[in-house]
Design brief:
Blueprint lengths: L13 E6 L5 E5 L4 E5 L2 E4 L3 H7 L1 H10 L5 H12 L29 H10 L2 H10 L5 E5 L5 H7 L4 E6 L2 H7 L3 E4 L9 E7 L8 H11 E8 L12 E9 L5 E12 L4
Parallel strand pairs: 4-7, 5-6, 5-8, 6-7, 8-9
Antiparallel strand pairs: 1-2, 2-3, 3-4, 9-11, 10-11
Helix pairs in contact: 1-3, 2-3
C-alpha cells in the first residue's frame, strides 16, 4: 500500500526503511521524519513520537491483547516514546460500543413502538452509507473504523478498503490493510472514495477536513448526528435512525444524517 500513502507533515512520498519479519519497521520521508510500522500497521500521525509517548501504555496493551507484542514492535514503541520526554501520558478511550455487533434483547415488556424502531434501525446507517457510496470501487478509505462493522460490509463489495483510525486497537480489530492516522492530517494519496461515519462532529475544523477529503477522493460519504455539518452535500442525502445499545434497558437513539459529496471538476 506504500504508493497510496503520504507523509502527514509535508505530503511527500514515503519509502521503506528498515523492516523486521513481524511486519514492523519504519517508513521514511525526505523531510527527515520517520514513521513506525507496528506489526504491519503504519502510524502516520504528524508527531509519531508524541503519539507513542502519550499513548504508550494503550498501544502496548493493544499489542498484548492481540498476541502481537513482538520484541521488535515493543522496542519501536519504547524508542519512539523515549524520544519525546515530558508531558503526561493520556488515557486512550475507544469511541465505539463494544457490543454493537450483537444487539441485546430489550427488557421484557418494552413498548411495541420501541421494538419497531429498533428493528428498523438495525443496520440502517450502514445501508445508507453503502447506497450513497455506490461502486464497487477499487480503493476506499474508511476513517474512524471503530469496531469494524462498516469495514466488514464495505470489504464485501469493494476492492481494497483501508481501515483507518486514531486508535491502534480499532485498526487491528478491523483487520488489514489499515493504518493509524489523524483525520485532520490525512496521509493518503489519490483514492476512489472516502467514508467517515460519525467522525466529522469530533473534529476541530470540520470544513477543512471535508476540503482535504475531496482533494484525496472524488466521492466522500459522511454521516453525523449534527446535520448542519453536512451542508453543501449534493442532492443525495438520507436521514436514518442510529441506535447504540448499552444493555437491554439502555438504548441511545439518534437521527443520523448521511450525505454524499462529489469533487467539483477543475
Amino acid at each position: 500500500m506504500l504508493e497510496h500513502l503520504r507523509c502527514p507533515r509535508c505530503r511527500g512520498p514515503l519509502s521503506q526503511g528498515p523492516s523486521f519479519p513481524d511486519g514492523s519497521g519504519l517508513l521514511l520521508c525526505a523531510c527527515e521524519t520517520a514513521y513506525p510500522v507496528l506489526v504491519g500497521v503504519p502510524i502516520l500521525v504528524p508527531e509519531p513520537a508524541l503519539y507513542l509517548h502519550q499513548h504508550r501504555d494503550a498501544v502496548l496493551a493493544t499489542l498484548a491483547e492481540q498476541g502481537l507484542a513482538t520484541p521488535e514492535a515493543v522496542r519501536l514503541v519504547l524508542d519512539f516514546a523515549a524520544a519525546c520526554p515530558g508531558g503526561e501520558p493520556l488515557r486512550f478511550g475507544d469511541d465505539w460500543v463494544h457490543d454493537e455487533a450483537s444487539w441485546p434483547e430489550p427488557t421484557e415488556g418494552a413498548p411495541e413502538a420501541l421494538l419497531s424502531l429498533l428493528e428498523q434501525a438495525q443496520g440502517a446507517p450502514e445501508r445508507a452509507i453503502e447506497e450513497l457510496l455506490g461502486g464497487p470501487h477499487d480503493l476506499v478509505a474508511e476513517l474512524g473504523c471503530g469496531s469494524g462493522l462498516l469495514t466488514t460490509r464495505l470489504r464485501a463489495r469493494h476492492g481494497t478498503v483501508l481501515a483507518c483510525d486514531l486508535s491502534l486497537r480499532a485498526v487491528l480489530r478491523a483487520g488489514p490493510p489499515g493504518l493509524v492516522l489523524d483525520a485532520e492530517a490525512l496521509p493518503l494519496a489519490e483514492l476512489d472514495a472516502l467514508v467517515a461515519a460519525n467522525l466529522i462532529d469530533l473534529l476541530d475544523e470540520p470544513e477543512a477536513f471535508l476540503d482535504e477529503a475531496l482533494e484525496r477522493a472524488s466521492r466522500v460519504v459522511l454521516s453525523s448526528p449534527e446535520p448542519e455539518l453536512l451542508d453543501g452535500a449534493d442532492a443525495s442525502r438520507h436521514a436514518v435512525p442510529w441506535v447504540r445499545p448499552h444493555g437491554p434497558s439502555e438504548w441511545q437513539i439518534y437521527l443520523l444524517s448521511v450525505a454524499r459529496f462529489e469533487r467539483r471538476p477543475a
